[in-house]
Amino acid sequence: MSRRALLILALVAADLVAALAVVQAKHRARELQHELQVLRVERDRLKTEWAQLQLEESAWANPDRIARIAHERLDMHRPRQYAVLGDTR
Questions:
Q1: Is 88 helix (H, G, I), strand (E, B) or coil?
Q2: How far apart are CA 3 and CA 8, in angstroms?
């Protein structure tokens, strides 16, 4: 085989390797793009869930609700008069 034929054969082989590398890189980029989209959907779902939990927490921590439950379930009442006791040391 002549030197020129070997050079052409080497260039064709290098071209095939480069083409396969491009195909592999594009495939990996598509996989990563899909994974990114899945993670964005998950992020949006978690942000919505977090907002709902914050709203629920504010509803549960409402002072009027807490006072009503303390009165109804625990039979707790607000004192009518406050007495400040001195230091008894």
A1: coil
A2: 9
Tokens of 72: 């109804």
Q: What is the pLDDT of residues 38-86, one digit of tens each?
A: 999 999 999 999 999 999 999 999 988 988 988 999 998 887 777 677 6
DSSP secondary structure code for residue 78 in this structure: -
**Identity (one letter) of the amino acid at 66?**
I
Q: How far is CA 23 from CA 9, 12, 38, 62, in A?
A: 21, 16, 23, 59
Give the pLDDT confidence score for residue 80 in this predicted structure: 79
From CA 54, how far away is CA 57, in angstroms rounded?
5
- Number of Cβ within 10 Å of residue 67's Cβ equals 13
SS3 72: helix
| E strand or H helix at 62 | none
The structure's pTM equals: 0.59
